[in-house]
Specification:
The chain is an alpha/beta fold. The protein contains eight helices and 17 strands.
Length: 346
């Protein structure tokens, strides 16, 4: 054990693979810790997962607390929370970050409640800064700025927790950039004792069925997304055709998903997936702040909209004012002709 102040990251994993969001948060924790002179600590619960601990170190952790026990082979709320609560009470981390996954959203509130600390959900940015309370005449130094959209995305709230520790936040996958692994990086893997209570096993796992998503928007180099301006299934078929021609994936705004045009796994934005493709084509998407928060770091953005004042045009590199039903076939035709010309030149 060390007396050095620390930033913790809960490491989520399934079938021997660490969730991307956990490694993204490890990289962000590294950046924050370097500013503060803190230690980055990964918390890994599981069974026979020693190698995962070293992967966390290679991605930026200084230390990994490893709870290895057969009862931790699969995620269950109470045993996993017991480990986190027990160790946090002993070691008193300054900051505790958790991935905003279904498991993370189940795990983080229970830990925060037991530790009697605040929890900010679905942060889109984390920074370090000071907070001055005028009525107290006091400035709290080096707090975690927990930044997230609020009131339906109409404003951005910066939340601080000056009085209790740890400062806890969940962050969605893809919001932070994943650091490159450093094979030469060294750290400490510290086993921790798994001490449970009988009530921790109220839930028993009888069987597991895992269904992996076939949609990988986060990794797609090109995304062609449709919004409320796409009126029917035929227009969405144009999006799929263009995405296939460009070697990319189809995406959608929340409006298109809510209208039943496409499944929720294709949704881009604050309540969907955060993406950073080389090319993002937004067809019939007005550009609400919730959607822009999930794609505004794309390398190139082409926006197609009938409204010349659509918010999406504020961040687009190329703006096309027109009906997507008319513009998309022209783009598809141009891409096909270019492909044919390229083959002929060969």
């Amino acid at each position: 054990m060390t007396d050095r102040k620390s930033i913790w990251v809960s490491i989520e994993h399934t079938d021997g693979r660490i969730a991307d969001v956990s490694l993204e948060l490890t990289g962000k924790a590294r950046d924050l810790a370097d500013q503060l002179g803190y230690e980055v600590v990964g918390l890994v619960c599981g069974y026979e997962v020693d190698e995962l601990a070293w992967e966390v170190i290679r991605h930026g952790a200084d230390r990994v607390l490893l709870a290895d026990h057969p009862e931790l082979a699969h995620y269950r709320t109470l045993p996993y929370a017991r480990i986190a609560i027990t160790e946090a009470r002993k070691r008193r981390p300054e900051i505790f970050l958790v991935g905003g996954t279904p498991n993370g959203r189940d795990f983080a509130p229970r830990v925060a409640s037991a530790l009697r600390c605040g929890l900010t959900a679905d942060c889109t940015e984390l920074q370090i800064g000071d907070y001055h309370v005028r009525r107290e005449g006091r400035t709290y130094k080096d707090l975690l700025y927990q930044i997230r959209p609020a009131f339906g995305g109409n404003l951005v709230a910066t939340i601080v927790n000056p009085n209790t520790r740890p400062q806890m936040a969940t962050v969605r996958e893809g919001v932070m950039r994943m650091p490159a692994a450093d094979p030469s990086r060294m750290g400490v893997v510290e086993p921790v004792t798994s001490e449970f209570e009988p009530g921790d096993f109220a839930l028993e796992v009888l069987s597991r069925e895992v269904r992996h998503s076939t949609v990988r928007l986060k990794d797609a180099p090109v995304i062609v997304s449709g919004g409320a301006g796409i009126s029917d299934a035929d227009e969405f078929a144009l999006l799929r055709e263009l995405a296939n021609l460009l070697g990319g994936e189809v995406g959608a705004s929340r409006a298109a998903v809510d209208a039943g045009m496409i499944g929720r796994e294709y949704q881009v934005g604050q309540t969907g997936t955060t993406v950073r493709p080389r090319l993002y084509i937004a067809a019939g998407i007005s550009g609400a702040v919730q959607h822009r928060a999930g794609m505004d770091e794309s390398s190139k953005i082409i926006a197609i909209n009938t409204d010349p004042n659509a918010p999406i045009f504020q961040i687009a590199h190329y703006r096309v004012v027109g009906d997507a039903a008319e513009v998309l076939p022209m783009i598809i035709k141009a891409v096909r002709e270019r492909a044919i010309d390229g083959r002929a030149a060969e």
